[in-house]
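Hi W., the pyridoxal-5'-phosphate complex you wanted:
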Amino acid sequence: MLYKSTRGEEKYYDSAFVIKKGISSDGGLFVPTEKFKIDLDKIESLANLDYKGRAKFVLSYFLTDFSEDEISDCVEYAYESKKWDGENTVPLVKLGDNKYILELWHGPTSAFKDVALQILPVFMINSLKKCNDDKDVVILTATSGDTGKAALEGFKNIEGTHVIVFFPEKGVSTVQKLQMVTQEGSNVSSIAVGGNFDDTQNGVKAIFSDKDLSEKLSKSGYEFSSANSINWGRLVPQIVYYFSAYADLIKTGEIKAGDKINFVVPTGNFGNILAGYYAYSIGLPVNKFICASNDNNVLTEFINTGTYNRNREFFKTSSPSMDILISSNLERLLYHLNGNDFGKINDWMHLLKDKGEYSVDDMTLKAINEIFYGEYSVESDVNNQIKTTFDKHNYIMDTHTAVGMDVYDKYVEKTDDNTISVVLSTASPFKFCNTVLKALVGSDAIKDKSELEMLEILSDKFKLVIPKGLQNLDEKEVLHNTVCDKNKEAMQECIEKIIFS
Ligand SMILES: *Cc1c(COP(=O)(O)O)cnc(C)c1O
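Structure:
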């Protein structure tokens, strides 16, 4: 399989190069260029494999420059049962007739980012080797919470890599902050920035595009890379669980191979749902991908009107990992739907950058609507959904998953579609205890309680076990206490101090 940029550069690369590089030098994203379909009988046979077997099968189609042994080693390392609460890496839970939840958060940091960030580091070291690149990679990440911790945990003690995470000092939850400042590992740093997420992200972006700095690093044997979902190495592991959910439904006799199902995906950067689209494009039988947004409903509007407009109010919601106005991975979808017409992609992406808005043509919108449905939930919908799902099914879900579940209800109401549907659950309810408890027991019951006390309350009241990574967070030693100003120079100074000392 060869990859090329969405913005026109006529060069083809293998997967090792695109994983190492992260983003194309013309500003585009790398996409697979060869079309193929996996036969139904092969998909059916996945029912007899465990998650690791399914992962090896799917990845082998995309990482053709990796040997079978290399893929196998990466998978065995990333999805080791110790890290995932057992052999069932991503359990599929039946909630009601036609309604399933795919729990993607049993990994070390309790968010679905682990599925990709446990394997990206081993993809990365293999890729560096294949490219004969002996530099050390410095992974720089600006985070609003989940990605930072998952990147720290994934890359810790991986030889040849360093990871530096910047987070807004007051922009993450207590639990998220404790998760990051207590991170162990010889090659990891987390740094608080005295600003908000945008300041943090802008600082990191400016550092990435500083040519002098990258030259200086290169001379000393280092290069920057990214653990963001613009990196193909983060998307490709996510294709696997769409097949895995389908295989589980075959295994339990709920569907026959060939039956189409729906997937409901709580969406931010359009990475997760795009991985589903790739699964569909190589043969997974799908009826609709239901794209669920929160108050930041730029994607809902886009899917329904064809106009992407980020000139709108930004809302801070209870599902912060979906508080995004620029969904980067949409670029890849538009490229594929337009017969690889990079001219159009360039036009639209430049309009987005310069004017904050673009509109696709009718043909593109029609192609989108054939397979995607878009809807959103406001904050009160999310709270109600957490409560009603608990009352109805005795199931507790986090705020992001609740957006998905609520949008699914709205979809069924509107379309009467009773196709079997899988809602992707992207975080453990313990990661967003505050909102979850408010919805379940009311604000009075948790008045004056700290976030850590709320973990205990959720556990005691509802007989749930606190995930290992979130237990005793306040007893762990704080290993990272650097606070840095919210400007590029200060952040760069922190990086140089870490790398050159
Ligand atoms: C990152 C994240 C999302 C959004 O996923 P995208 O791939 O950015 O669309 C949803 N929920 C949670 C909990 C996340 O961490």
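Residues 195 and 486 are 6 Å apart (CA to CA).

W.
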